[in-house]
Amino acid sequence: MSENGSQNMSEEEEDFMDTEDQPPRDIEKEAEDAKNTGNSFYKQKDYFKAIKFYTNAINLLPEKAAYYGNRAAAYMMINNYPSALNDSMKSVENDPNFFKGGLRMIKCYIALGNLTAASRSLQDLKSRDPNNSSSYASETTNINRLKDLEASADKDMIKSDFRRVVYVMDRALEMAPACVNYKTKRAECLALLGRYNEAQEASNEMLRANSLNAGALYVKGLCLFYQDHLDKARQHFLQVLRVDPDHSKARLAVKEVKELESTKQKGNQAFTSGKNEEALKLYRAALLICPNNKLTNAKLHANIAAVFMKLRNHEEAVKECTAAVKLDNGYIKAYARRIVCLQELDQHEEALRTRRNCTRWSTVESLNRDLETLLSNSRCLRERTITKYWVVQKQPMRMKSRKLTRKLR
Fold first, then answer.
1. Rounded mean pLDDT of the chain?
2. Who contacts 377 (Cβ-Cβ below 8 Å, separation ≥6)?
3. Largest Cα–Cα distance in the chain?
């Protein structure tokens, strides 16, 4: 035998001898020790360390149902319900009579908002343990309560009572904190209420958990759409359709954005070409495309006012400007046009009130500068003065008029 062969043999013999010298492992004891250590950390509310030791126990004895059940309980405490559900299912798979595993499955399904699966699991648990109904009484109540809240939210959505839907979803999320559908519906209604910062915050939270969450991407697009960022909104809606080609709301939104952009652009072209009646028709048609889009519709009302001003119909122009600032109380151009039209109608005091209202709403210095620029470019405002006659009573049965002239600043 070669020298190398002798060397290999001696190494093998040495390994064999080392193995013989090692005491046999007690796998069950090691697993129990790991589980007990995990229990200690669980009681200390250090759930991440508890999960680590439960995992060690599972790796040693993967057929032990209780270990999966313990880790599921720890996952639930850190709101990781998908992982908790997987462990609960595994525990029941290993031991169909493991009651705690079945109960945790129901709790996880409820937390995730999967009421169909929760009801099915509850019926299965009842059939296997009919005499222990008090243990799952609260789960039965929560399932029924969530079903009622879902039905209520659907009715409120049809009535466009978005504030009520937000309230209902808040109540539902107290019982189902990990339900993506509830979070999405709540965020969508916040956007429909014009509470864009809150809606975007809620969407970003969902996207941090899942960057391909179609519902969250749709809500972000909706916020952009309602804030008159049409091009960015279209890009978000198209991204939603790439993630979920069957997303009906995103498909409708893409159609609305395209139609709104096209109709508004045609109206602008008609106005520039001096086709005033055609411009009016197009702008009014654009207003009907998405009534919830307040900022874009405010601009459309202001555009209609510009057409009426061109036609010297200042009464209608004032109405359109009023409609514009009602939708967007910070819209400087609409305020300026309203002031110009009121001056043309000799309604100088109302023009002054509009100016004051505009200053009150517009606290941003740059917006106030824009107003000054718009007003300084109006010849009628530079040349006209506000004249008002105040009747002052000097003595009984005798009245005197006094003329007060003030520059509109």
1. 84
2. none
3. 143
